[in-house]
Amino acid sequence: MALLRKNHRQRLGGAVSPVRESEEEEDVIPVVICASEERMGATMATINSIISNTDAGVFFYIVTLRDAVKLTRRYIEKTKLKGIKYKILEFNPMVLKGKVKPDSSRPDLLHPLNFVRFFLPLLDINHGRVIYLDDDVIVQGDIKELFNINLKPGHAAAFATDCDLPSTHEMVRSIGMQTTYMGFLDYRKQEVKDLGINPSECSFNPGVFVADVKEWKKQKITKQLEKWMEENFRQNIYSSAVAGGVATPPMLIVFHEKYTILDPLWNVRHMGWSPDARYSESFLQEAHLLHWNGPFKPWTYPAVHLELWERWFVPDPSGRFTLARPDSNS
């Protein structure tokens, strides 16, 4: 089964094929980011923030669904982003069959592109190390600093732990966010108990990470993630848990005690969990990356710290992606 397709030509025997816009180069920072039809402007704002804050060359692997390939290319080619180096990869949702079922209170968390991060080695990526970013982030720091993190031997990825900054702790307390494994896994289930993971152990956020693709392949991370997806499909071992969503728990299980910890300023998150809870301006200025994980996205309304996101927004040339604002009918 093909995971990705290249126009009308299939790569022989292939799990993957790209839609090529420009060739990869060795001396660049490769960034994997998804572009869904309904959130295209979010992806473009992330891309704009990255290229505007680094002098390094960046190569974007933009993963989307078949229906949004043309829209993605047009958004880039008809705007200020036309000079970026990129390749559009088409994701085939059939790879998720028998692994995901609609049981979340937030359907957006079940979007096929939410699971692209599980399949990194199956994407047509010609780089040994990549950065994966969700589309609800803005990069304020120099992306090459994130890329150059030292991954510990045997670690396939680096994530930001949920028990890091005092400012984040305050935000978490104010909005009741989950920061431990208890918030993501159903400890009433024997399969979860058998993992031997302390329920009060700190979780991590998989929306921003650096991955060693070769190590990922070597450890068969994708197979392990698929196993837990299938297990949940049968047993509901995490999908009804407090935190909601089905993309984070498999990562928490598979990477338990097997990941390098990112500098927490490279994933200042929870900004989308409340339309009222705000960080201090001085703290936000220090942050290298802002993450609006949660239901209150900065392109919608209400949401917090809108100005920090909107400064990087690139208007959609097709007019389909519009900002929801109080003085707007969009």
List keywords for this structure.
two-stranded antiparallel sheet; 10 helices; eight-stranded mixed beta sheet; single chain; 330 residues; 24% helix
Question: Could you explain how this protein is built, in words?
Answer:
- By secondary structure, the protein is an alpha/beta fold.
- It is built from ten helices and ten strands.
- Helix 2 links the parallel strand 3 and strand 4.
- The protein is globular, with a radius of gyration of 19 Å.
- About 4% of the residues have low confidence.
Short description:
Helix content is 24%, strand content 15%.
Q: How many alpha or pi helices?
A: 10
Overall pLDDT score: 88
Helix content: 10-25%
The radius of gyration is 19 Å
- The gross shape turns out to be globular
Residue stretches low in confidence (pLDDT < 50, at least 5 long) are: 5-17
Listing every helix as H and every strand as E from the N terminus to the C terminus, the arrangement reads EEHEHEEEHEHHEHHHEHEH
Taking the sheet with the most strands, its summary is: 8 strands, mixed
Please state roughly what percent of the residues sit in beta strands, choosing from under 5%, 5-15%, 15-25%, 25-35%, 35-45% or over 45%. 5-15%
- How many runs of DSSP E, i.e. beta strands? 10
* Order of adjacent strands in the largest pleated sheet: 1-4-3-2-5-8-7-9
Q: Structural class, from secondary structure content?
A: alpha/beta
Distance between the termini: 40 Å
